[in-house]
Design a protein that fits this description.
This protein is α/β, with parallel strands linked by helices. It contains 14 helices and twelve strands. The strands form three sheets. A five-stranded parallel sheet has the order 5-4-3-6-7, covered by helices on one side. α5 links the parallel β6 and β7.
C-alpha cells in the first residue's frame, strides 16, 4: 500500500500522472517517475539518463584520481569516478536518490533499526547500517565507499569519524536548497543530467498554487508531527515550512517563527495558535495515542478541527519534506485539501 501510494503521488496540477510499477530505463536504472509532473518524455529521459561509469576497484583511496565539486559555496574533493555512495542519517537524500535513479550502496536505519516504509523502494538493495554508524565506523570503512552523504546537522565529532572512511558531504536541511541538493547527487554520481526542465516544472506548480492561495480569506497553516504522545514543530526553513511560508507566502505561525530547532508543542500552545488549517503527520505506531488525544476538549475546540480542516497524513508521514519529491507531494495535498481541487 505504501509503495502504491508513492508511485501515484506526483501528478501534474492539471492532469493526473500515474507511474507504473517497476518501470525501467534501457540500462536498468529505476525510473518510477516516467511521467513525473507531466514533463515531456524527451526531457524526462534526459533527467533519468544512464548512470555514469562505475568506480574503480583495486586501488587505494590515496591513488585514486579525484575531482572537485562545488556545493553551496564549498568545494569538496571526491573520487573522479563515483559509484559507491552511502547515505548517513538524512532521508531527504533517499528521495533524491529515488527520483534520479541513483541508489546508495548502503544507508543508515532509523532509531528503531528500520528503514521508514516510505523509503523501502528507494533503498531496497542497500546494505543496512546502524543508526549510530559513526560509532561503528570500521563497518563503514570496510565498504570502501566513494562518497558519504550526511546532514548538515551531523556533529563535528561525527563528521571527523566519517571522514576516516571516505569523502563526506553534509547536505543542507534548509528547504531553500532543494534544487542544489538534487543537482548535488547527480554531480556526485558523475551524471550530466539537465535538471532545468524538471526544476522549472516544480517551480511553475508552486507559483500556480501561490496565486490560488492568495485568494483565501483565512490561511494560517500549520504542519506538525505527532510522535510518542507529543506534537513537534520545525523551524520555518525546514521540512515543508520553507515551501509554505516562503514559496507560497503563507503567514508564519508564531510557534514556527520562534523556534530554531525541532521543538515539542504543548496542547495549550497549539490551542493558542489555533490555525485555520492543520496538517498532522502520524506514523502507524503513534496512531492509537493520537486517537486518544482527539477526544480531549482542547483538541475538539480547535478551529481546524471544528471546520473539518485538520488533515492527518495528507502526505506520507515519514517523507523528509523540503525535497523535490516531498514538496510536490505536499503541493498535491494543498491542492486537494485546502483548495478542494479534484485530481
Amino acid at each position: 500500500m505504501q509503495q502504491r501510494r508513492m508511485d501515484r503521488v506526483a501528478y501534474n496540477l492539471h492532469e493526473s500522472c500515474y507511474f507504473p510499477d517497476n518501470t525501467r530505463s534501457k540500462n536498468g536504472v529505476t525510473c518510477m517517475y516516467k511521467r513525473l509532473l507531466a514533463i515531456p518524455i524527451a526531457a524526462l529521459l534526459l533527467v533519468l539518463s544512464a548512470c555514469g561509469n562505475g568506480g574503480q576497484t583495486g586501488d587505494s583511496a590515496a591513488s585514486k584520481p579525484t575531482r572537485s565539486i562545488n556545493y553551496l559555496g564549498n568545494t569538496y574533493t571526491i573520487p573522479a569516478r563515483t559509484k559507491e555512495i552511502v547515505f548517513v542519517g538524512f532521508p531527504a537524500s533517499y528521495e533524491d536518490s529515488f527520483l534520479l535513479g541513483i541508489p546508495p550502496v548502503a544507508a543508515t536505519v532509523d532509531k528503531n533499526g528500520k528503514f521508514p516504509a516510505e523509503y523501502q523502494a528507494m533503498i531496497r538493495n542497500a546494505k543496512h547500517l546502524p543508526y549510530h554508524i559513526a560509532d561503528n565506523v570500521n563497518e563503514l570503512v570496510a565498504l570502501e565507499p566513494d562518497v558519504i552523504m550526511t546532514t548538515d546537522k551531523t556533529s563535528k565529532e561525527d563528521l571527523a569519524k566519517l571522514q576516516t572512511a571516505a569523502s563526506v558531504i553534509p547536505v543542507s536541511t534548509n528547504g531553500a536548497d532543494w534544487q542544489e541538493n538534487l543537482r548535488l547527487l547527480a554531480d556526485v554520481r558523475g551524471r550530466d543530467d539537465n535538471l532545468d526542465t524538471f526544476i522549472g516544472k516544480v517551480k511553475q506548480n508552486t507559483q500556480e498554487l501561490h496565486d490560488k492561495l492568495a485568494a483565501l480569506p483565512e490561511k494560517k497553516v500549520l504542519t506538525l508531527w505527532f510522535q510518542e504522545g507529543s506534537f513537534y514543530a520545525y523551524p520555518k526553513e525546514e521540512r515543508y515550512n520553507y515551501l509554505l511560508y516562503t514559496d507560497l507566502a503563507l503567514p508564519v505561525p508564531d510557534v514556527v517563527a520562534n523556534i530554531q530547532e525541532r521543538t515539542a508543542l504543548s496542547m495549550d500552545a497549539l490551542a493558542k495558535e489555533d490555525p485555520n488549517y492543520l496538517f498532522v503527520m502520524v506514523t502507524k505506531e503513534d496512531q492509537p495515542a493520537f486517537k486518544q488525544l482527539q477526544e480531549q476538549p482542547a483538541w475538539t475546540n480547535l478551529s481546524a478541527v471544528k471546520t473539518g480542516q485538520m488533515y492527518m497524513n495528507a502526505v506520507e508521514p515519514g517523507l523528509a519534506g523540503g525535497t523535490a519529491y516531498s514538496n510536490q507531494s505536499f503541493l498535491n495535498a494543498i491542492r486537494k485539501q485546502m483548495l478542494k481541487m479534484s485530481e
